[in-house]
Amino acid sequence: MSKTVIRYSESFKLKVVNELESGILTSYSEARSLYGIKGCNTVQYWIRKYGKNHLLNKVVRVEKADEQCEIKRYKKRIQQLEKALVDAHLDLSIERSYVEIACEAANITDINTFKKKADI
Q1: CB atoms < 10 A from the CB of 27, how many?
Q2: Which end of the chain is more exposed for a tag (fewer CB within 10 A), N or C?
Q3: How does pLDDT run across 82-111, given as a tens digit for each residue?
Q4: Boundaries of every domain in the chain
């Protein structure tokens, strides 16, 4: 089974883009169904290619200079907290290892029993 490749002319692409821009066609899916365009992102690609980017959905983020500094400060703080968490986990692992070694040295098989004796 071979795949059929469909090539569209430049004038056809421009026609579809112009119809979308002028409001004749209201959506990409309407253009696809009207003209039998198979690709899901084909029309969006044509819009990007022919400079009609205002038809694509965009997210624009506007920040003040102090907000950018604040974001950097937060990222640095997150890194510090992550490092502290790693250190705490390492300390806990070392402590558990010491308790196990102490249990072996005292010939105690149950760690809870050792902890109870150590509290006394």
Answers
A1: 10
A2: N
A3: 999 999 999 999 999 988 888 888 888 888
A4: 10-55, 65-119
